[in-house]
Amino acid sequence: xxxxxxxxxxxxxxxxxxxxxxxxxxxxxxxxxxxxxxxxxxxxxxxxxxxxxxxxxxxxxxxxxxxxxxxxxxxxxxxxxxxxxxxxxxxxxxxxxxxxxxxxxxxxxxxxxxxxx
Length: 117
Fold this sequence. Notes:
Blueprint lengths: L17 H13 L2 H11 L3 E2 H8 L3 H13 L3 E6 L2 E6 L1 H14 L13
Antiparallel strand pairs: 1-3, 2-3
Helix pairs in contact: 1-5, 2-4
């Protein structure tokens, strides 16, 4: 049973804003090491599957799986040209979650308040 002092303030019990939900999805997606490697590679610019496959030394079917997951989440985009598919980071998505990421990982935003109970 919690004492009255330990009950969170009303503002601390509010549902997380939408951008925090997006940050959760982003962190969960990139928490998978192979997806993080692919994403990090794509930050350097647009690439075809064969380039990604060679860079991360994974079989094509596994690379395609991770690309699909990242694409469905909106983290990357695909551009098709003939039979080729080129993948790149979705800058609009990053711009949308960037402020929430900055707030979440801002050391100046961390409170030094001590527990009251």
